[in-house]
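In this supplementary section we document a worked example of the pipeline. Step one takes a protein sequence of length 184 as its only input; no multiple sequence alignment statistics are reported here. Step two produces a three-dimensional model, which step three serialises into structure tokens for compact storage. The input and output of this example are shown verbatim.
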Amino acid sequence: MGKKFCKKGERLLYKLFLPNEFVTSVFEITPEKLYQLGIRGLITDLDNTLIEWNRKDATEEVAEWMQIMKEAGIRIVIASNNSEARVKRFAEPLEIPYVYRAKKPLGLAYKAALEKLELSRREVAMIGDQLLTDIFGAKRLELYTFLVRPVAESDGFVTRFNRFFEKRLFNVLKRKGITMWEER
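The serialised model returned by step three reads:
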């Protein structure tokens, strides 16, 4: 009986917390790659995914990456658990729609982002730096997921709490032979 529970628990772990892909940064995600996957839209986290959690504005590289995506016809929405002022300051100059105070991993933010994208779930991928919020929430809606290595080594208070549990999940995945970015 214990073995059955463990196997079922492992399947649940893989289904809900294992990203489809580990990438070092968003710059590894190209329009060509997305088109091959049938992806036409992105929901992306902001803090420690696109820029450091304590940086206010987009870097030149991030702005250029977003422009390349837009020019290729890839739609983008930012979904952040942060405040409206924080997300708006980043998103408006880039003319990117956003969802603030998203309360990820709850599904309402993802659904709001999907509405803004006007695409089906099969055509949308989530990019984030946290298993417990970004990946878990997106996987529950069966979105394709990219887990990026966090842009900054430091985190805000709530994220530090999440990272504690995330480390344990990473250890389980490592024991199962899952290759993450640390090992590439």
